[in-house]
Design the sequence.
């Protein structure tokens, strides 16, 4: 392949290193070339390593930047700068994207370039482009997902290997699944960001970011053992539903039958199911965290850019948040609350600083 797409990679952590190694090893077949790697001052050693983004933005040979930096900042401003400089952006940074997704998409459109983010929701599981494609024609009425590999790994390790919370978290960190600050994983914040990305695309509009979010902090082995004895299990999940303009979305530890599909999602695997009026149910699963799977999702986006086949989602609907679309039974500190909304259950648990487990009436 002669005309390679020159890219710059912003960040050189687990995902960045895997990405650069994979592209270097398959440069000819992929038609991609890593021209720059942006690193922190003092870390930029080697011919293509740079420590200032201006070198990248000024280079007319660079067609796209890949953002694999941790945390919302400085990614958010770097994405804006790159789009404004008419460079396409591939970002794995869910925090930056969730903070301003619609405005970033609008900026990309104005600049005549593309913003792609398959890796930002579901890691190596190819769900973002699938949601985009499904929503082009079909009406998506529901989605549910296991979108944090760290929490799924931890819950699975606690339930099956009887590890403590701390031991399970330490293993997830060693395996490279957890964020630099794992608080974002275990608090549900990471899933919140991914839920904003998934639902904005699926429901075609701006999602109010203040929806109910609970994580797995305070999860005890005894709860998982009790659920197993009742033929049930727990998964940290995003739930989302829509009826016309009305929608609800939330993140919580969800109680499921041990025979339900998400109950079979083990270790760092992620899962996403959606329901289209026309297509019916669709499900996806794959590795949601880790260097190589996430790098693979980024490479998919880069191939899309190289092939000039990128499409934009549409965000034309005025969405109205309606928490009554997600109801069920809540378990808080030994209490059982029947027929509550996920929102009311979340507020009640947070007021008491207690762990919430929620069993939705429609899974
Ligand atoms: N910390 C994240 C997770 C990485 O565990 O899912 C992938 O987004």
Sequence:
């Amino acid at each position: 392949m002669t005309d390679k797409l020159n890219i710059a990679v912003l960040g050189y952590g687990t995902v960045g290193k895997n990405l650069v190694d994979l592209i270097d090893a398959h440069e000819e077949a992929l038609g991609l070339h890593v021209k720059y790697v942006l690193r922190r001052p003092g870390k930029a050693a080697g011919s293509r390593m740079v420590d200032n983004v201006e070198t990248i933005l000024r280079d007319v040979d660079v067609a796209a930047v890949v953002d694999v930096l941790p945390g919302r900042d400085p990614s958010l401003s770097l994405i804006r700068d790159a789009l404004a400089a008419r460079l396409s952006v591939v970002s794995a940074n869910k925090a930056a994207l969730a903070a301003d997704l619609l405005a970033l998409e609008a900026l990309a459109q104005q600049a005549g370039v593309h913003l792609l983010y398959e890796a930002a929701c579901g890691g190596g599981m190819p769900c973002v482009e699938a949601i985009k494609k499904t929503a082009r024609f079909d009406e998506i009425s529901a989605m549910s997902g296991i979108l944090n590999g760290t929490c799924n790994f931890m819950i699975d390790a606690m339930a099956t290997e009887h590890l403590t919370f701390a031991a399970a978290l330490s293993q997830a960190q060693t395996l490279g699944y957890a964020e630099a600050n794992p608080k974002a994983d275990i608090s549900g914040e990471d899933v919140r960001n991914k839920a904003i990305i998934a639902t904005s695309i699926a429901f075609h509009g701006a999602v109010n970011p203040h929806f109910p979010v609970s994580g797995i902090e305070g999860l005890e082995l005894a709860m998982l053992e009790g659920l197993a004895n009742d033929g049930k299990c727990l998964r940290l999940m995003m739930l989302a539903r829509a009826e016309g303009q009305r929608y609800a979305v939330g993140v919580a530890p969800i109680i499921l039958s041990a025979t339900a599909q998400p109950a079979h999602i083990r270790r760092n695997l992620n899962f996403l199911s959606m329901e289209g009026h026309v297509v019916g149910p669709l499900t996806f699963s794959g590795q949601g965290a880790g260097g190589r799977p996430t790098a693979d999702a980024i490479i998919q986006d880069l191939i899309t850019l190289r092939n000039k086949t990128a499409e934009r989602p549409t965000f034309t609907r005025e969405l109205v948040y309606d928490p009554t679309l997600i109801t069920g039974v809540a378990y808080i500190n030994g209490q059982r609350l029947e027929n509550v909304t996920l929102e009311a259950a979340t507020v009640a648990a947070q007021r008491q600083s207690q762990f919430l487990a929620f069993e939705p009436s429609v899974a």
Summary: The pocket of L-homoserine is lined by residues 123, 148-150, 177-179, 185, 190, 288-289 (CB under 6 Å). The mean pLDDT is 96.
